[in-house]
Give the backbone structure.
Amino acid sequence: MNGLDLELKYKLKTTVGDFEFLNETTYLNHYLTQFYQEFGNQQVLGQFERPRWRNNFTLGYEIGSFSSQVVARSVADMEKRARGQGKVVSPTQFDLAFAYEFESLGDFQIGVRNLGNILPRFDRTFGARVSGNLFQ
């Protein structure tokens, strides 16, 4: 397996607070595996549960002791388990977090992972749901 990891970060300071933009992308060029020794290595990139790319985009906001962030997590579409039967379309999941820093007591943080409980798509050809671990 080989690919490219890219992280872009930008912080914008304004009079109404500080904004931070962060984009993290993983893009795979090759994902080879060997099912049977006789056939050698086979490219499995883009097949079921082997997406070509993953992306996390984070928008953060901070003012004084308060901060918040929204994260959009997505993966590329991939083939259904029964190859040639179409694609499993991957949804985008959203996380939301808030934090407040008390001077003498420490931090208070609360958040929601996968706001809206957006589940990975279902592959009806074999009755299998795409693993939620792909979004982590």
